[in-house]
Amino acid sequence: MSFRIIGQIYSPSLSDTSSQEYIQLEMIVRNAIDKIYRMTIQEYIGVSEVRFSSGSVITSYKMRTNKVSSSDIQEANQAVVETLQSYDVEPMSFTAALIENTFEDLPMVFSGDSISLRCNPTVDKKGNPVTWKVKGKNIKNNSKYTIDTEQSSLTVKNLVTSESGIYECSVKIGVVEFVRKQNVTVLPAPTVFVNNHVISSPCNTAVKLECCGNVHDIRLEWIDKQSGDTPEFSEDNCITMDRRCQKVETRVFICKMTFRNK
Length: 262
Description:
By secondary structure, the chain is mainly β. It has helices at residues 20-40, 70-83, and strands spanning 2-5, 44-54, 57-65, 96-100, 109-110, 115-118, 131-134, 137-138, 145-148, 153-156, 165-173, 176-184, 186-187, 192-194, 207-213, 218-224, 232-234, 238-243, 253-259. The longest helix is centred in the N-terminal third of the chain and has 21 residues, at 20-40.
């Protein structure tokens, strides 16, 4: 969060956390914020990292709470203005950003996949519109993106690797801006490689079947198509199976790749 003190001239010593000027102003501001927020904001935890920068005196700080209410924060900020009236705090200068750096349950994403992201703001958006950005640019509904305003969700279709980047949503409620963002990596489409597709071998001669995948966190299985049995499996990137026929026959084995975390 931040606000602007217009009744004091900024000096570089306010950026030095060891200077007396910083220590004195920081104590006054932190005590005022802590006292008022503790009385006004439900489930308030504390305030930390009070810093000052130029622009009259821009005061920034981190406020910790288990519950966010824009109306409570606005009420508390007004009380801060009154408490620090000798410093002439600009009432309309308060801003707050609540940033969460992950979307829920986002699996591995591969080229050709579609994903759905839920904004799920931890503040009540009360009808305020959610803005979606991809790699810093605002997006809107089209053949690639579907924005569901009721669910505050974004669906991205048929992803390609070049669409990797930061996906984010934001909603402004009073002085609080809720932001959720995550770096989404679109991986190349997974591929299974086998050493031979057709093998002819005399009976009682061992045949080596090898199968590999081009991605991590996978499980590979050789499956006997006739019986459905899984004679071999591995959680490495390659699996090798030695087979020896007992009679003249044709058997088909299928290499199956599944993802452990998808």
